[in-house]
Design a protein that fits this description.
Layout lengths: L15 H13 L3 E2 L4 E2 L4 E4 L4 E4 L4 E2 L4 E4 L5 E4 L4 E2 L4 E4 L2 E4 L4 E2 L4 E3 L1 E3 L12 E3 L2 E3 L4 E2 L4 E2 L4 E2 L4 E2 L4 E2 L7 E5 L2 E6 L2
Parallel strand pairs: 1-4, 2-5, 3-6, 4-7, 5-8, 6-9, 7-10, 8-11, 9-12, 10-15, 11-16, 12-17, 15-18, 16-19, 17-20, 19-21
Antiparallel strand pairs: 13-14, 21-22
Length: about 190
């Protein structure tokens, strides 16, 4: 890397120590990952005994992010050249796929489950409703957004900051709001 292009304040810049710490943490967690994939400090990954995580090459998970994979059979697949911003939460009980070349802003949350809430039983005693999440290739999810169960975000789509996405989004569209609504086609 030439000295002119290196910027220690850039979120993608890592020291040798950070790269080694990242490597050992990912190995300790039995995560399959590709070359030039790193996690920054204070990233926490908690997995149930049958969880699977596969991360492609050139991916970066920023500081203070939290990945939680719990039963019944969670699987997280993250593609190549993905940037997961600071403070993101990924909470998976089934399957989540993030495609290639995806930008995820800071403080974005993904939840593939929620609870039933029938009146005749305590909510905490009711079963979860679980549906997988898929984020296509070349997507951008703005900071503070929440992606809920069963959502598929099509290739090339953009989610505006602070959006709550509770239904699938077609390819090459821009959506924003609470709940997220169609804004325009990406041109």
């Amino acid at each position: 890397m030439n000295k002119l292009s290196y910027d220690k304040a850039n979120s993608g810049s890592l020291t040798i120590y950070e790269k080694l710490r990242s490597h050992f943490y990912l190995k300790l967690k039995n995560i399959n990952y590709g070359q030039s994939t790193f996690i920054k400090k204070n990233v926490k990954i908690r997995c149930t005994d049958n969880a699977k995580i596969n991360i492609g090459t050139g991916t970066l998970i920023q500081e203070n992010s939290f990945i939680l994979l719990t039963k019944p059979k969670p699987e997280l697949i993250i593609g190549n050249n993905v940037n997961i911003g600071r403070g993101c939460i990924i909470s998976i009980k089934d399957k989540m796929v993030i495609g290639n070349d995806v930008e995820i802003g800071p403080n974005v949350s993904f939840f593939d489950q929620d609870h039933q809430f029938e009146a005749n039983q305590l909510i905490r005693e009711q079963l979860s409703i679980i549906k997988s999440i898929t984020i296509g290739n070349d997507c951008w999810i703005g900071s503070g957004s929440i992606i809920l169960k069963g959502v598929d975000v099509g290739n090339g789509s953009v989610i505006g900051s602070g959006s709550i996405v509770n239904k699938s989004i077609p390819e090459m569209e821009i959506w924003a709001g609470n709940p997220a609504k169609f804004i325009k086609k990406r041109t």
